[in-house]
Design the sequence.
């Protein structure tokens, strides 16, 4: 990402900040809401995620998600909703999936629920979890219909308080969603020891913020139904603050030579190649790939523009 001053990235847990604590994988069931060092439990991060997931918030107060100007990248808004719709589109277009079953979907790293509400329009049941207690508590408040406000950064210390605007049709589908605290590196526990399985799984900008991404990937065959589809959306922005270097799927230079990549066994080269090998070995086939842009607001005159790589995989 452009700057180390930013505290947010989209979807699940995607921080660009340097010198931040790693994702705490010591507690598999909940995050420590009292830990002042956990950036995901701060009000600042919560406010930024609310703006990302519900970008219509603030318009009635005159606070736009992107300052109006010529050629504004409005196509980068509503990222969580676009991710959810892409999963549905992949299921519709997959000729091998004759049943087109949409019973249950898993939203891994749901944050404050923007994708979860969109998924609930298309699935009978949405299981949505995040490692952040603060995010899950907020998602539940949104689900309950409480009036809510949050702060939007304007310039330096200046903020504006705006009312949260829920997506159209949220009330009719809110009852389908179960928000809970969980660990993406322990999908067995998050999915009740594999007693429930899914027709779809969404993982948006989370993979490169896990301490053990392989643990997550290798658990997928046990939680995804036959012909079910897994959608990864990620910029592969590896940082040792979150993922030990040995656990990166790719992006590593060789430490022993001037070569720009290491051997395949050392997860050198590009992460998408390792992801492909792992998913194929786990019994999945890639059915779709595209680039997904998103915009993250830092303040009214500064934004991050990110292009995540989206790949969809059907379980054989």
Sequence:
């Amino acid at each position: 990402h452009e700057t180390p001053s930013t505290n947010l990235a989209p979807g699940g847990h995607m921080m660009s900040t340097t010198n931040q604590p790693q994702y705490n994988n010591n507690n598999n069931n909940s995050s420590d809401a009292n830990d002042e060092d956990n950036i995901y439990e701060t009000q600042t991060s919560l406010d930024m995620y609310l703006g990302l997931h519900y970008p219509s918030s603030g318009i009635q107060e005159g606070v736009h998600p992107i300052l109006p100007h010529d050629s504004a990248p409005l196509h980068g808004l509503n990222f969580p909703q676009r991710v959810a719709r892409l999963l549905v589109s992949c299921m519709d277009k997959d000729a091998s999936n004759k049943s087109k079953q949409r019973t249950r979907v898993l939203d891994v790293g749901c944050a404050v629920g923007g994708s979860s509400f969109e998924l609930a329009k298309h699935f009978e049941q949405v299981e949505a979890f995040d490692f952040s207690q603060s995010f899950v508590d907020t998602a539940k408040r949104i689900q309950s219909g409480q009036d809510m406000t949050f702060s939007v950064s304007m310039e330096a210390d200046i903020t504006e308080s705006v009312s949260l605007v829920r997506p159209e049709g949220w009330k009719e589908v809110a009852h389908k969603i179960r928000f809970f605290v969980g660990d993406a590196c322990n999908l067995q526990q998050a999915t009740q020891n594999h007693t429930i399985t899914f027709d779809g799984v969404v993982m948006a900008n989370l993979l490169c913020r896990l301490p053990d991404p392989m643990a997550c990937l290798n658990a997928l065959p046990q939680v995804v139904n036959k012909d079910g589809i897994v959608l990864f959306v990620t910029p592969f922005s590896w940082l040792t603050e979150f993922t030990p270097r040995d656990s990166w799927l790719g992006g590593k230079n060789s430490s022993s030579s001037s070569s720009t990549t290491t051997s395949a066994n050392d997860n050198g080269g590009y992460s998408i190649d390792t992801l492909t090998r792992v998913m194929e070995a786990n019994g999945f086939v890639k059915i779709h790939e595209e680039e997904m842009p998103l915009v993250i607001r830092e303040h009214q005159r500064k934004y991050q523009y990110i292009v995540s790589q989206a790949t969809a995989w059907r379980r054989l």
User: Anything to note?
Assistant: Confidence is low (pLDDT under 50) at residues 1-35, 256-265. The radius of gyration is 19 Å. The longest helix spans residues 79-93.
